[in-house]
Specification:
Layout lengths: L1 H12 L6 H18 L4 H20 L11 H8 L27 H4 L2 H7 L10
Helix pairs in contact: 1-2, 1-3, 2-3
Length: 130
């Protein structure tokens, strides 16, 4: 399976000679077989085949890497219904760490009463040494 996929990639990249269609069919068949035998998960097979076919289509169309089109900044901000990021208060600041809720202990040790800890035999901070 790996060999078939590598051969197909090499032909797509142009570093190796061969028929792209035949090698793609062979690689897809090998991936499907690995998926049916349980060697690869079905989604893993699907993802690998998709990436292989996508790279082959890009090579055929002549575009090695597709250029991403830039979205207008104003459209994004208006679609969210909020102010642009620069206008928001504290745009670059991170959220402060969440403080423990009042009236509720933060750790398991704090939730366990000292009498329960003594009965269990653990030497907690409230336990008296014997």
């Amino acid at each position: 399976m790996r060999t078939a996929v590598v051969r197909a990639r090499r032909v797509i990249d142009g570093t190796d000679e061969g028929t792209t269609e035949d090698l793609l069919k062979l690689a897809a068949s090998a991936l499907d077989k690995a998926g049916s035998k349980g060697i690869l998960h079905a989604r893993n097979v699907s993802r690998r085949k998709s990436r292989l076919m996508r790279s082959a289509n890009r090579a055929v169309s002549g575009a090695a890497t597709p250029a991403k089109t830039a979205k207008p900044a104003g459209k994004r901000a208006s679609a969210q219904g909020t102010k642009p990021k620069a206008a928001r208060a504290g745009a670059g600041a991170r959220k402060p760490a969440a403080a423990p809720r009042a009236g509720r202990p933060a750790t398991k040790t704090e939730r366990t009463s000292s009498s329960q800890r003594r009965a269990a035999g653990s030497a907690g901070k409230d336990a008296k040494p014997s």
